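Lecture notes, continued. The same structure-token format from the folding unit now serves as the input rather than the output. Read the line below as a description of shape only.
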């Protein structure tokens, strides 16, 4: 018996609901077959947007980050390290993924986008353009 009902449109979701939800879905309702999606945090500050992806077990060379016409795509491909291992349960596997984010390109300085990978978290920094940053409060004197 499940306490949460999931409403997904694809065949895997239908099969999971029929089978009790334990075969192809993780607890969040995401498909966990050969590809899975890393968890993401998106943070906005006055200076920049920050996107953090939890992708443990990868190397920085495994990532591909592209920015094209306001669409930021982060993907990773990794060859299966040891295909002889038989897993009884496998809850994390980033053998490959691709996540895309729509970014307001008029707000982002796309020439200054940077990324770093540290402690299993990929951090992508999207600095704002000067005209998109909040301006300080200005007092106007009455003449």
């Amino acid at each position: 018996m499940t306490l949460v009902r999931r409403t997904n449109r694809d065949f895997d979701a239908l099969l999971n609901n029929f089978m009790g939800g334990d075969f192809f879905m993780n607890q969040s309702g995401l498909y966990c077959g050969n590809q899975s999606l890393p968890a993401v945090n998106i943070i906005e500050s006055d200076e920049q947007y920050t996107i953090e992806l939890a992708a443990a077990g990868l190397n920085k060379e495994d990532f591909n980050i592209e920015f094209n016409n306001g669409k930021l795509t982060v993907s990773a491909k990794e060859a299966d390290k040891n295909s002889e291992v038989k897993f009884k349960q496998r809850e994390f596997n980033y053998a490959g993924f691709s996540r895309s984010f729509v970014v307001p390109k008029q707000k982002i300085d796309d020439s200054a986008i940077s990324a770093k990978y540290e402690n299993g978290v990929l951090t992508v920094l999207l600095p704002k353009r000067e005209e998109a940053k909040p301006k300080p409060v200005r007092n106007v004197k009455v003449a």
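Point for the exam: The first helix runs from residue 11 to 19.
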